[in-house]
Specification:
The protein is of the alpha+beta class. The protein has twelve helices and ten strands. It folds into two domains: 253 residues, 2-Layer Sandwich (Creatine Kinase, Chain A, domain 2), CATH 3.30.590; 88 residues, no CATH class. Helix 3 packs across helix 11.
Amino acid sequence: MTLQEILGNELPRWAQISKDDPVIFTRLALFRNIKSTRFPSMLQGSEKAKAAGKLDEAVRYINDHGFGPFIPYSMESLNEEERNVLSEKGFLPEEGRLLDGNSRLYLNEDGSLAIRTNVHDHLAFLGFSGGNTVFSLWKRTARLADEASDILDYAFDKEFGYLTASPQFTGSGMKMVSLLFLPGFALHDRIGSLSEFLELRGFPLSPAAGKPDGRLPFYLLENTRSLGIREVDYVSELDKILQEITEEEKKLWKDTFQSSEEELRDRIWRALGTLKYARRMTREEALYLSGLIRMGINADMIPDEDGLTFYRLYSLIPDSQVALISHTAPDDQTAMEKWRSALLRDVLKNL
């Protein structure tokens, strides 16, 4: 995908998921740094340019060995709205002040892999996938990091592992987050016990909306352990956990729908009607209603021929994307709510 397609909210093929998969997407980052070279935030202009040259050479090496092509884009010319969108989509860190002419984002053809250079770390190998495919995602992303190591010496300590700009990721150098949709767990009041179980395994579960809300069964599952682990073992454990969550969620949702079918069908149809005709929509309401649409897809009430209907809705909820598409100031909430409702109506206009 091109940078313009991502900013314009073109949907990647990797976002396609089956109707009953509770794993909406997973984002993976592998951070690597050049041995004996200071982190980008500590480099002066000429030093950072020299590091950028080495990183460009590493990406060319990856391309030449059949892993690309990865197309480079400079980060220096991005405006604030564009940076916010790329951060929301997982391509940039939330803090974008370190971006300059020596910072680049390399994108592959389908948008499932990317390489970020000279931001917080010298290298961030990024992977994106929809559905429960975390292990294969890690393998594809790790191959890029391994390939670049043929011509780059990574900063690696025998005791601590990979050295990263943030101590949180020192060790495996890995950050992983999955967005889960768990109405079955939520409606059975099982989120608390699930969260406790995952916390003990080193994978905290948190509300995607930022605060607990029973109406919004979206949760972020993240890795917190980095020191003293092997990537392959940790990812294998996460893959197994997601399989277990998927199986249990399907059972709980089936039980919930069978026992409360009339009520749930009514809520789903009301959600569809509201999204199709509302003229103003807050982020919270949009997320709630989109969740009901996801339930409707699962229940075969709402068609989803290409597996992207929910992701289309979800991608238009953040203020950053609405502001960029509509050229509206993010702090003008009235205008933002009007535009959000219009964009969501357009997604569902043929239903």
